[in-house]
Amino acid sequence: MQRPALVTVIGYLQFIAAITSVQMFQEPLVGKVAIFPGSWLSVHAQWNYLAYSVLLNLITGFSILRGYRFAPWLLAMANFAGFSLMIPSFSQTTSLSLLSAAYSVVTVAPLFLAPSAKQYFRVRRTVRAKFSVRDILSTLLQILAAFTIHRQLIGGFTHVFEPWAAGVAIVFVSGFAILIGSLIRWRFWHACSDFAITLVTAGIFSGYMLLVSASVWPANPDGQLFERLQIVAINFLLLVAGIGLARLSTRRIGVARAAMPTN
Predict the structure, then answer these.
(1) In whole angstroms, what is the distance from residue 125 CA to residue 130 CA?
(2) Rounded to an integer, what distance in angstroms lies between the CA atom of residue 146 and that of residue 245?
(3) Beta bridge partners of 88
(4) Which sequence ranges are marked TM in the entry (predicted)?
(5) Which of 26, 76, 109, 196 has the greatest number of CB atoms lying within 10 Å of its CB?
(6) What is the dihedral of CA 41, 45, 47, 50, to 10 degrees?
(7) What's the distance, CA 17 to chain centroid?
(8) What is the pLDDT of residues 88-136, one digit of tens each?
(9) Taking Cα atoms as reference points, which of 181, 151, 175 lies closest to residue 241?
(10) Segment holding 248, helix H or strand E
(11) Are the C-beta atoms of 74 and 108 separated by less than 8 Å?
(12) Angle at CA 189, nearest 5°, toward 124 and 8?
């Protein structure tokens, strides 16, 4: 059984979260600034949790992609633990807690409710498609591509956002990922199908981080709000492009299979 695209997106989100957490430790304010403003935990304890969450996200993401039956429950418990740390000690950070709860529901609920996801986690491992070297290389490529695209957008939170520069970088990364994916898969439309999932993943995670940024650091009247609106527009285009590419590649793969000889 092939892994549903919905499951793949949620699995990729865990890996991007892990890489993002690792990058946070490269900042000069490690251990000095609260990660969850208003949390009942101390700043030092919050950074310790972030370090542990890297390993937890990696294990959860791998378990989801492999289709282990405990994976949905592991993700639910991990999200609940993260949400409990964001319980605010004052009302100003309530929006961050609500965003965390909404994101947890969006990522966990489909694994329990979507028919394709439920079937994927129920079937025996021998029935699911085995991981080949090509699958591993393709998965690593798509995760890195999704994170790179996400970084192009998230960079607008820390410095002046240049839409044209971000657009050129995203187009370059997209072309590179499809080209290398085609070489790995040896099938162009299969590579496009993989990259469609990448675009949707990057769009979802960047959108969530944009909302988190807006709730923690309100926009200043010096043009930052306009920059964020530009990021929202590009983010929306990513989601539309990902969904459109997924539909197109699925149709082309179906046509190619129908044209294959039956004997």
Answers:
(1) 8
(2) 15
(3) 39
(4) 48-65, 72-90, 96-115, 136-158, 164-184, 196-217, 229-248
(5) 196
(6) -80
(7) 7
(8) 554 545 677 777 788 888 899 999 999 989 888 887 665 555 667 777 7
(9) 175
(10) helix 224-259
(11) no
(12) 35
